[in-house]
Amino acid sequence: MAWQRRELLQRGLASAASLLAVATAAARPAAAASTRADPALSACAPSGDPLQALLAGNQRFAAAWQLSSGPALTSADRTARMAALWSETCQLDPAALARGQRPWAAVLACADARVSPEWIFDVGPGELFDVRSAGNTAFAEGIASLEYAVAQLQVPLIVVLGHQSCGAVTAALTGQPLTPLLEQLVTPIRASLQPGDDLSLAVRHNTTAAARQLSERSAVLRDAVSARKLTIQPLDFNLETGLVSVI
Ligand SMILES: [Zn+2]
Fold this sequence. Notes:
247 residues
């Protein structure tokens, strides 16, 4: 059939064009280097230890979070109290972000609606490279994304962010019936559990296991850690206080 041949030819040309675009992008180290060197993209990056910068941002967030907590407050009260947080938040130029990205930390976090990394660490768009999936496990596509962040964007820190009341960890702990795909998702969480774990211990064990698996499963991440170009740090987020703690 002529139309089938034509369609196959068009698809083939489209695939070839995609591959060519990828290859061309890979062959442009000078362009990538100039984006990395763009000072406007690093204007909010900390000059010191990125982990300490995240923890300091979290202190600011937690203060506002605690102030806006309680049934006596209206939504407008909470808006005013959380808005105070933004008076200190560094913001990159959107025009610069349209040219590229230069994140200074990566976060492997749960998809939970209460666990938004930019809020928790009080940073603006363009600063964190986020990978999110229920239960913050070290899943293949997530590891690949983090390899890109480390190898291409030179991110020096990955934090793995577990959190209080995690639904995925609860599912792994209680053995409730799940769909086949959710079973796949909780399998590494179940493997991380230790006898006698309650939910908060299970969250911590899952978070440290995911952090460990990043370098076990990825030569790129392992080599970066060995070369002291990368730190991988598990953290635990408390929803009531808004504080993260180092595990
Ligand atoms: Zn969760």
